[in-house]
Amino acid sequence: MHKPEEPAPVARAKRPRPAGPAKLFVLDTNVLMHDPMCLFRFEEHDIYLPMIVLEELDGHKKGMTEVARNARQTSRTLDALAGAPGADIGAGLKLDATGHRGVGGRLFFQTQSLNYTLPTSLPQGKADNQILGVVDALRLQYAPREVVLVSKDINMRVKSRALGLAAEDYQNDKTLEDGDLLYSGAMALPADFWDKHGKTVESWQQGSHTFYRITGPVVPSLLINQFVYFEAPGEPSLYARVTEIRAKTAVLKTLKDFNHLKNAVWGVTTRNREQNFAMNLLMDPEIDFVTLTGTAGTGKTLMALASGLTQVLDDRRYTEIIVTRATVSVGEDIGFLPGTEEEKMGPWMGALDDNLEVLGKTDTSSGEWGRAATNELIRSRIKIKSMNFMRGRTFLNKYVIIDEAQNLTPKQMKTLITRAGPGTKIICMGNLAQIDTPYLTEGSSGLTFAVDKFKGWPHSGHITLARGERSRLADFASEVL
Fold first, then answer.
1. If we measure between CA atoms, which residue out of 406, 400, 411 comes closest to residue 464?
2. Among candidates 219, 216, 220, which has minimal Cα distance to 196?
3. pTM of the entire structure?
4. Burial classification of residue 359, based on how many CB atoms lie within 10 Å of its CB (0-12 exposed, 13-18 middle, 19 or more buried)
5. In this structure, are residues 160 and 133 in contact, taking their beta carbons and an 8 Å threshold?
6. How far apart (Å, rounded) are the C-alpha atoms in residues 140 and 366?
7. Same domain for 448 and 305
8. Is beta strand 46-49 parallel, antiparallel or unpaired with respect to 106-109?
9. Average of pLDDT values for 150-169?
10. Distances in Å between the alpha carbon of 209 and those of 204, 254, 256, 297, 458?
């Protein structure tokens, strides 16, 4: 933390030239359109907005897309800052004026022309190049103070560094710096766990489940609804879920074995450890929110649909299944496709149809007519909805499946999860390695955001599915291609 600066003299300069180690960040337009609240997330550092950025904001404000909404929100925020009592644009607008936590720096606008010289190969009229010119001029004007361009555009950052200018990605939107740090939902107990703690473990039986109360150094690293397992040659295996954590002790509850045919869910049995963990979450009525991540072919959609059909048609726990997914053009108009809302979503729902075909064949005893009737019943209980029309809705006693959730922003994820009314269960599924939305990464995806924020909540659970179960061809292709 740097020392407080000396009080400024009464006669303030019209152009910002603050002293001290605080940096001057020049924001690209895409940062403001990506996160309208980014102005308040640079701590004690100052922010500079070139005039061309305001011009680009104005050009993107029309429409109903997420980008247009963020552009309008940014414009309203800038208007509130500039219109606050005592605001002086020449001296910089205080960024802690809106009540955000921490002491912010100041916001400066480009109020006059700046002299800069860029290579002739860069077209002078292009907005990106004008921003680079502003950064270059500020670097010379405020040397040795550090002037940094912040942009979500990779090519913009590359061009900036090629010109000898400092450039950074906008990092405050990232839940995690590294996708490998994402909570997996399961943890292996140490190989010597029973040797060290076997005599002190308290156990008891309740119904078909066995409970264990454990102590030791492993407890602080556990979370509620996290799965733990112990597999060692010659030792009995343990597969359990953490149900309680108190001080230095934790309670483990053994799982229902969905690998066994007698526990099949709509004719589907799990094929590996992680799938069994996931099915225990999907079939538990006390779990309201489930997140499943994993590569293609790990069984996410099939298990979610099978458990949904069982709980809707057999257990009558929910009234219907609602399926939606993030189309590549999330938030855009889907009116160019013919038909009703469900027919418009049809092209995006190939994965759903594939899995329903598998589930429709699981009952071999009812004959062709019986299967046809079952398929008709299944179709009547599954509703396909577009995300465009989710705002303002409330789902009561519904089983909601959100597919391709890795393409959602944290804001869109919040919009969908807050649709849940009493008795509703939401399942979010996705593959973080297949993000198609611009400006989203593994660290900033809404799915990563949801997994991280909900971990440890008693009514949510997460599991990362590790092994593909499609076919030997698909498994080999995923390894060698």
1. 406
2. 216
3. 0.77
4. buried
5. no
6. 80
7. yes
8. parallel
9. 93
10. 9, 6, 8, 30, 18
- Same domain (yes/no): 190, 162: no
Single out the residue in 168, 199, 221 at which a domain terminates.
168
pLDDT tier, 130 (very low <50, low <70, confident <90, very high otherwise): very high
Backbone φ and ψ of 209, nearest 5°: -110, 150
**Alpha carbon 268 to chain centroid, angstroms:** 29
State the CATH number of the domain containing residue 201. 2.40.10
What is the C-alpha separation between 292 and 473, in angstroms, rounded? 24
Give domain status of residue 2, yes or no: no
Burial class (CB in 10 A: 0-12, 13-18, 19+), 212: middle
Question: What is the distance between the alpha carbons of residues 198 and 337, in angstroms, rounded to a whole number?
Answer: 62
159 shares a domain with 197 = no
Domain C-terminal end among 254, 280, 297: 254
Q: Side chain identity at 126, as an amino acid letter?
A: K
Contact 255, 210 (CB under 8 A): no
Q: Which domain holds residue 236?
A: 179-254
Instruction: Specify whether 332 is located in the same domain as 221.
Output: no
pLDDT tens track for 292-305: 999 878 889 889 99
Q: Please give the tally of structural domains in the chain.
A: 3
For residue 225, which of 190, 178, 182, 183 has the smallest C-alpha distance?
Answer: 183
Determine the Cα–Cα distance for residues 136 and 146; give it in Å rounded to an integer.
Answer: 11
The verdict on residue 423 lying in a domain is yes
Give yes or no for residue 350 having a pLDDT over 70.
Answer: no
